[in-house]
Amino acid sequence: MKESLLLTPGPTNVPAGVLGKTALPMIHHRTKEFQAVLERVNANLQKVFLTRHPVMTFASSGTGAMEASVTNLLSRNDQVLSFSAGKWGERYRDIARVYGMDVKVYAKASGEAFSAAEVGKALDDHPRAKAALITLCETSTGVRHPIQEIAAVTSKSGAMLFVDAISGLLCDPLRMDEWGVDVVVCGSQKGFMLPPGLSFVAVNERAQRAIAGSDLPKYYFNFSETIKMIKKNDTPFTPAVGLIRGLDEALGMILAEGVENVWRRHAEVARWVRREMSSLGLALLATAPSDALTAVRMPEGIVSGDAIKVMRDSHGVVMADGQGELKGKIIRFAHMGAACTMDDARRGFGAFCDAMSKAGFKPPSLKPVKE
Amino acid sequence: MKESLLLTPGPTNVPAGVLGKTALPMIHHRTKEFQAVLERVNANLQKVFLTRHPVMTFASSGTGAMEASVTNLLSRNDQVLSFSAGKWGERYRDIARVYGMDVKVYAKASGEAFSAAEVGKALDDHPRAKAALITLCETSTGVRHPIQEIAAVTSKSGAMLFVDAISGLLCDPLRMDEWGVDVVVCGSQKGFMLPPGLSFVAVNERAQRAIAGSDLPKYYFNFSETIKMIKKNDTPFTPAVGLIRGLDEALGMILAEGVENVWRRHAEVARWVRREMSSLGLALLATAPSDALTAVRMPEGIVSGDAIKVMRDSHGVVMADGQGELKGKIIRFAHMGAACTMDDARRGFGAFCDAMSKAGFKPPSLKPVKE
Predict the structure, then answer these.
(1) Closest CA of chain A from B366, distance in Å
(2) Interface touch A196/B29, C-beta < 8 Å
């Protein structure tokens, strides 16, 4: 069988060249050699986040970085607006609640997205709100939020916009500075083409000013210490040396391709996957689909787990089931990072068709699928 | 030149077989294949910590795990006793302060260690104390604390014993359950022979009972969620898949050698290094030296940085300078994990002698050094 193809919404396949760099013989982190890596990585992260502001790297999962954005920029009893279109929106909501904030929750049914007008209305209703929390790509449903339009609203308000772009960055367009996004959170194992273990947070001027006002305790995830160390090509604590050398390689690959070309590749593959699914008569869950993954509704009588098992066992293709209430009802076909090529998508779609057919699915018509 | 030899107190050299496992093609973390890795890793971590209690793994530096032990087991306004013999003891103190605790600080001069009697006296003076915070090996000075004797005292008191064993575990003996240590914190880049990026916390019954009583907010570092997931061979958040597969390999190597044999190897190498240093007439900083590293005082007129540079540039041997006030005054010669063999120690000592001689040091006598 061919090498396994990870079409899950993270972790995704990691290029061999990146893996190789993560496994170079160890070096100490307080050396000129590693400082040069940090200097390049920090500069290149800014190019990928499209920001001139600091992009911090932490050893943690993406959730750690989400929590860090809350504990460093907000205070107990702050009013925050949570815009949740699924499991990941709920996570931001839950973190803010754990820290004792006054969280006003806006929620969407699975597959639906918030509009900028809805965010604007919520801000009008809550003029004291300090932050609006939202996801770029909500991986539980495959929905993409219109961050550019939303940022146009939040940047004129008193609320900072926190974007969980953990799975979205480099798959869906995001222009942090140009759009006026205050905080962007990301993880390593999606668009960045890395193993899991690193997370990132970028903070603009408004967010950096908020650091001093936060009354929440923090130690490991400390933005002011981390930003200070970035300026010295250093880190407050021992960094994940291997993963950061892999990041250096991955950033080089991404910038050689060009961030806009990376977005275009994701858009093209995503469009193809959506069209093929439609040609089978299958419905997408997302009304406003992300280019990071496509969530397809299972037709009556088919349980997604059965098809997923066939894909995995007979084709070496790994896709994800729905989470929570969506378990059994959708298949999530990711096209992220290094596993976002037309070859990968075709292999994935071929496996999908075979598995669905074995699960008893008959497409509504037999007309050949055109590309 | 030979491959660089990292004799710094972390990161240390990582065996090629472990590096190879960290760089295997990526797999998804919610699969039978990875669950089998987690099951084995969790069982083997217990064998290394010498505990039947859960050992949690986090993607973070060791500092994150130190903070986690405080936020999960203690509460705001709790009285805690900080026993600090250097920079790492100060870190535990600082974390407890950040979380609003009533920290009673006991501090030692550089190179000195606390005795169990001193800890007992402090506990007698503070019968309300909820915790005693101490390091196993204080890497800033090379001191080892007598944890067995200290635990004999704390286990009869109302205070839990938190041991920062980040650099000490697997280098200095620690028998968590037998000695009655409540909390053991560790990192991946020392005795575990792994790249930095993982941390560990083990908690005994008393510590587990304390989880429910803690009023501090936490989300990413959440012991009760993590322990629940360990029982299902799962993790609350996406784990650092590559590093954990490396951990699996490293644990296999450690257990094949045997934990007591690993301690013995460290003790033998450390004894040899201490004896050679003494034979040069050099003084050790630590009155109670750890087997993880040897901190040697520079004689009058020699600045450690000069010798460190010669070792690095002419011999590919990397040792560490002192930190803070000790900068320039000591050299820290680590013998940890995979870089703890007699060959490594001899290469390190050879480089040290050459560098010291170039820095103008003349040993007090010319009598040949016996082994």
Answers:
(1) 35
(2) yes
Give A174's DSSP letter: -
Q: Which residues contact A357 (CB under 8 A, 6 or more apart)?
A: none
Interface A-B, measured as beta-carbon pairs within 8 A, has a size of 173
Q: How many CA atoms lie within 13 A of B295 on its CB side?
A: 27
A26, A100, A197: residue with CB nearest B14: A26
What CATH number should be reported for the domain holding residue A314?
A: 3.90.1150.10
CA–CA dist B338, A371 (Å, integer): 55
In the numeric block, which tokens belong to residue B339?
Answer: 């870089």
Domain identity same for A63 and A107: yes
> Are residue B204 and residue B298 in the same domain, yes or no?
no
Residue A188 to chain B, least CA–CA distance (Å): 10
Residue A363 falls inside a structural domain: no
**Nearest by Cα to B13 from A241, A338, A128, A178:** A241
**pLDDT tens, chain B, 371 aa long:** 568 899 999 999 999 999 999 999 999 999 999 999 999 999 999 999 999 999 999 999 999 999 999 999 999 999 999 999 999 999 999 999 999 999 999 999 999 999 999 999 999 999 999 999 999 999 999 999 999 999 999 999 999 999 999 999 999 999 999 999 999 999 999 999 999 999 999 999 999 999 999 999 999 999 999 999 999 999 999 999 999 999 999 999 999 999 999 999 999 999 999 999 999 999 999 999 999 999 999 999 999 999 999 999 999 999 999 999 999 999 999 999 999 999 999 999 999 999 999 999 998 765 555 54
Backbone φ, ψ for residue A239 (5° rounding): -80, 165
CB-CB under 8 Å, B6 with A197: no
Whether complex ipTM tops 0.90: yes
Residues of B in contact with A245 (CB under 8 A): none
Three-state secondary-structure class, residue A140: coil
Q: Which of A28, A323, A344 is the mutation pick for testing B, counting most B CBs within 10 A? A: A28
> Considering only CB atoms, which chain B residues are within 8 Å of A99?
217
Kindly state whether residues A152 and A190 are assigned to the same domain: yes
